Amino acid sequence: MDKNTRTLTVQKIYEDNLKWSDNEICSGDAILPTGVLKEGDVIKNCNGNISFRHIPTNTLLGAFNFE
User: I want to staple 43 with a disulfide (CB 3.0 to 4.6 A). Which of 8, 26, 60, 66 is the partner?
Assistant: First the structure.
């Protein structure tokens, strides 16, 4: 999490073949990458209290406060 650049960078992946299209922002606002989720991907323009959810499993992946 980098509040100065308003970005989140993926540091670790625990499952292969996860797709960004299978995830959504539940709260706040940000721009998700596209394609297969991989280490080093950057979520940009984060605003507010960002929460991410994996849609197929209805699992909260994380929450980050950019307020």
Answer: 8
